[in-house]
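ingest -> validate -> predict -> emit
validate: passed (alphabet ok, no gaps, 344 aa)
predict: started
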Amino acid sequence: MSKKRSGETVCYWSVFALIMAAFLCTVFLRAKVWSVERIQVSCVGFALAMAVMVFLGYRMHRRIYLELTGRICSCVDDLIAGKEPQINREEERISSKIAAKLETLAEITRHTVEESNGKKTEVQQIISDISHQLKTPIANILMYTDTIRDCELPREEEVKFLEVLHQQVRKLEFLVQALIKMSRLESNLIVLKKSEGDLYHTLARAVAAVTLSAQEKNLTVKAECREGIRLWYDPKWTEEAVFNVLDNAVKYTPEGGTITISVCQWQIYTKISIRDTGIGIDPEHRNDIFKRFYRENKVHEAKGIGVGLYLARKIISLQGGYVSVRSKPGEGTEFSLYLPNDQR
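emit:
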């Protein structure tokens, strides 16, 4: 018999005893056979009956309570041990309901722990990546400064070493700035401020920023964008994203190549395409290029630290857009940045 049925049985017997006592009192009153002795016997009998019912009720409810707490403790022990608690979800019991709630709480706790461990691993990976990126320029700076300090070099050699030091310091500065931007975006310290604006001027500033480096490699940069294309976006950070993609195209396009920027406005999104005639991307690495600090083996000699494309996709996605890429090794690459036309 279930605890619920047992408790109901005790209640029924208690009510039955009260009814019987009232019935006997009524019979005695109508028969006019009451006496002191009979009244005393009736009171004692009634008291004994009530005492027995109370005792049985106490025992029954104590047993129910002990079994309930035992089932809950067993469920908690299973959860602590990482096991799935044995719950009969079809059974209407308080213990089953409490166990189900505990299981839900344990699932939330597990998810929180896994998320915390994931963030901890990510932070450790970031620290490792930063340490690796900082190690080379710092080692070069130390080596060249020690050489200049400890050796008597001709003026020409000294100037040459100082120029190398200057380049390493600039590389270090660039790296630190990129890391600062990346960390601020990831930790939401930088909030993108979207407003309605003309995309033409944003692209013009991004193209102007890579013009000098493109001229040094004799690259042709073509921009096809009419004025009056208005979007709801963050001009400053969108310029940063477009610049990063353009800078990537300049780095990996051989001398005499071509970079083409085109804009196509659709009903929901506006597509910014940046196409180059560079070395292309191997198919197996097409998703890796958006990872922090990722660089293919064949481009390790080129300048860069591998955060430009990561930042570009992060900036576009924070504005409700997305980035796609098409590429063939040796035939060039096309990056497409999609920005929503309206406020989202």
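The two ends are 60 Å apart (CA to CA).
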